[in-house]
């Protein structure tokens, strides 16, 4: 039991002596900005028969090893149409990272990213690692969002900015690698915090009172603090 | 005169035909019963019955005149089943043919003796019945009979397990409809060409069948034709079984006795066996799932089946079985700790515990909590160590084995009651009405209006999906429901792919509208209940992957339908209730997980220097750490030489609030979260920088913020507008 649980760390969970991480990353952005192709490109060679993966790119997973740390990424695609905007929270809840994609040729899509950032910061605070991604740099001639503007904005909201081309497979590895490193860092800080033995989960988190099953969390917190 | 295709044996009526075959060819440990309606019928009447198709089986059976019931006593008799008492089919018999052999198989028997040993067992059983044996295999074709039986068993297994083959609804209904092979072949060596077999003529549904296995003789045609029924719940394992396997097989029977009988077809033992086998023979099942349902798959599956048996014997799987069985035994033993809890809890829910709860979520949470508690107890306690070595326990996923066993002990008897209570909750709060109403509206919308850009399933595919949804609805195990849900997703993708010519895989932009289209064209109300059932009752740790993603997506789609607004007005905000429900779900998901360190990230404080998000540092701040201590850490982190002149501010909505030295930032943060939903940033900056006043009175100067920091802490927070 213990062994199996350890290999399947929860969102952001570090397990197996802190050497294995599972992260949930949510993909946000307007339709047609290429977020699906982006993640598909990244996970391309990782089609897994176990999933219904070969037919879909809505949910993809990727395993990687960063400096001896095993990372399991679960990448959740979201529907970017405005009509589904209200569903955002159910996807980005408990995400460790968010990739906000816009199309550099489409000013509107950048505006959408800004809306998402606002919402994410409001709902999740600073606990989520944000990546703002200008996709389709192969169409640089038609660029409508200036690099300067995008990077300045990203910095102002504590996000990182990346340029990618899903078509030419540019910048994608870097994006995910960087994101993973940041998520690991956050998770490790978390871990150390727990290691302090000062963990106390009695307080509310993210606006919802935690009532019933909190003791379970406390005991488990104690048992994995060694991790 | 009716007879089987290729057979010289003629019979006056169906009853006689079936009776003969039952008597002569079977290995049935239970009472068989032929529906009364069939007994008196001759050809024309049979045709009439055939025309009824599926309806026949749902028609109330008229108790017949003085002729009594047409029972054929089979197998070891002595069951006190009181056959005429109940008309509920507990088990049915399938007739299938393969090469020259006719076999009539009692699925219960197959399930109980799901390994190879029953084949050998069969002969002894046959002999145990005085009425048969003599007619058996006049042509001495014993072997085909056996292999045929095994195939039948494995075929069933295959249908259940194959993930990646679109299965026909008929096939899916196996749980409910045992099928009879219309091409009954006689065991006699001589054949002759003939007109349609009797069974065939009654099978209207056959035409709907997808082309299945091209296997020459095993031409499967699905039908709702139930050859015969066994009445009553077996109360004791037939004494004639020489083998008592150490595995859970006997528990199947005993379970029926000890737990409240479930008046649903799901209790057909085959389904539960598949259930169990699927869970326990995980490795084999996984392999089988990959297996395409092709002609060769059948024989492959025989092999699979046998090799699964092999691994069972080899020990590892049997450890899981032992655990599963042990859990079930414990649960059924009222004097044991676990049994007492389980039984009183089951009784408690059955008596309508829902009335005590404000929402359906609360009810489901109570149940999930019980399962989690029992699971935790069982995994830790010594109760299971009796049946399983420590090393074995480590090797297998004890948690999931126990979880599955607990589903069986608790959710199986509770499923119907839970659904009834869920239904009541949602009928009351209007969810179901809204869903139905919007479903009707959305059905009238064009694909474009629905935002569908990819291909959608056609009528036939929708029907298959609906059949899958029915299975999802019937299942009691959330895990199994999830598997059906994923299959339905897969079928949707297949439909989308077909239209697109199978180029790129689809993402959420394409999938969600298609899912919504599918849902409004299916039984959306049942799905609503199912999704809730799964979300709340599933082992939270199981929801991290694909299943969790699609469950979220289904939840989202249902939410969208429920809140659908035909005008262009867009629901920008997900409702508070929905958010709450999602949150609770995710919370449990992480809470029950030992490595959910996100839970503890509340001890992290992000502090920026001078400006929000500038040079942000993560600082570990326990709830009771004071602002003064945090400031000390910040001074060190940012290398501030004059810490006295710096302070920690909470900056939000363009205003910033200097925190008093004895306040606790972490508590302040949670308070802010609770009262506001939003969150400001903690900024460490010079106290006088860009601020009109320093050291403002220890009250909140900005009325704007009085909501943020209303009476929360002992802190004397000082606020200053930026």
From TrEMBL, chain A:
Q: Give its localization.
A: Cleavage furrow; Endoplasmic reticulum membrane
- Tell me the superkingdom of the source: Eukaryota
Keywords (A to Z) from UniProt: GTP-binding, Lipoprotein, Membrane, Nucleotide-binding, Prenylation, Protein transport, Transport
Q: Per the record, GO CC terms?
A: axon cytoplasm; cleavage furrow; cytoplasmic side of early endosome membrane; cytoplasmic side of plasma membrane; endoplasmic reticulum membrane; Golgi cisterna membrane; trans-Golgi network
What the entry lists under InterPro entries is as follows: P-loop_NTPase, Rab21, Small_GTP-bd, Small_GTPase
Q: Which Gene Ontology molecular function entries are recorded, alphabetically?
A: GDP binding; GTP binding; GTPase activity
- Give the record's GO biological process terms: anterograde axonal transport; positive regulation of dendrite morphogenesis; positive regulation of early endosome to late endosome transport; positive regulation of receptor-mediated endocytosis; protein stabilization; protein transport; Rab protein signal transduction; regulation of exocytosis
Any keyword GTP-binding? yes
Location of the region described as Disordered in the Swiss-Prot/TrEMBL record: 191-211
How does this chain sit within the bilayer? Lipid-anchor
Q: What is its main location?
A: other
Alphabetized CDD domains for the sequence: Rab21 (cd04123)
Q: Which family does it belong to?
A: Belongs to the small GTPase superfamily. Rab family.
| Protein's UniProt name | Ras-related protein Rab-21
Species whose genome carries this gene: Podarcis muralis (Wall lizard)
Q: Which gene encodes it?
A: RAB21
From TrEMBL, chain B:
Q: InterPro entries from the xrefs?
A: RA_dom (IPR000159), VPS9 (IPR003123), Vps9-like (IPR045046), VPS9_dom_sf (IPR037191)
Q: Where in the cell is it found?
A: Cytoplasm
Q: Name one GO biological process term.
A: vesicle-mediated transport
Q: Where is the composition biased (Acidic residues)?
A: 169-178
Query: For the Ras-associating domain, which residue ranges apply?
Result: 606-689
**GO terms for cellular component:** cytosol; endocytic vesicle
Query: What is the recorded name of this protein?
Result: Ras and Rab interactor isoform X1
